[in-house]
Amino acid sequence: MIANLVQLAAEEEQNPLIPPGPELLVGAVAFAIVFFVFWKKLLPNINKVLDERRAAIEGGIEEADAMKVEAQSVLEQYKAQLAEARHEAARLRQEAQEQGAQLIAEMRAEGQRQREEIVAAGHAQIEADRKAAASSLRQDVGKLATDLAGKLVGESLEDHARQSRVIDRFLDELEEKAEATR
């Protein structure tokens, strides 16, 4: 049991968390070699990649800012063109309304002129028809009156010149009486 106790005391003196001295020295030298290799070889490459990445990100941000400014400029130009197009459309609409109103006025004036021409032509035609009817009626009435007078007198009134004068005088007297009674 004493042997067991000695062995236990020897084990208790050595802490399992603290390695023995030679192992600690070999570990520290290995760590220093690995640290030196990382510091000389790997760390510059990592820093270089990080710098490139930072530059790319910053360049991307600058490019994005430039694109944003350009997009804003294009948007402003678009808005200006849109406003100009709306203004132009309003102007064209106004011109079309003015031209339409002018065309309507011209068409009304033309219609009025044509109506007046038609009415004047109608009055002229009516007057011509009235004169033709009066002349035809005068000849028919004169012939009937001459025939009737010839039957009453018992002689033929064949003298055309005299017959026309008598008929014209008779009809003129009738017209004067008709106008006087109006």
TrEMBL record:
NCBIfam families, A to Z: ATP_synt_b, PRK05759.1-3
SUPFAM superfamilies: F1F0 ATP synthase subunit B, membrane domain
UniProt xrefs under PANTHER family: ATP SYNTHASE SUBUNIT B (PTHR33445:SF1), ATP SYNTHASE SUBUNIT B', CHLOROPLASTIC (PTHR33445)
InterPro entries according to UniProt: ATP_synth_B-like_membr_sf, ATP_synth_b/b'su_bac/chlpt, ATP_synth_F0_bsu_bac, ATP_synthase_B_chain
Localisation: Cell membrane
GO cellular component: plasma membrane; proton-transporting ATP synthase complex
Matching HAMAP family: ATP_synth_b_bprime
Keyword tags: ATP synthesis, Cell membrane, CF(0), Coiled coil, Hydrogen ion transport, Ion transport, Membrane, Transmembrane, Transmembrane helix, Transport
CDD domains registered for this protein in UniProt: ATP-synt_Fo_b
Any coiled-coil regions, as ranges: 61-102
Species the sequence originates in: Streptomyces poonensis
Protein name, UniProt field: ATP synthase subunit b
Record gene name: atpF
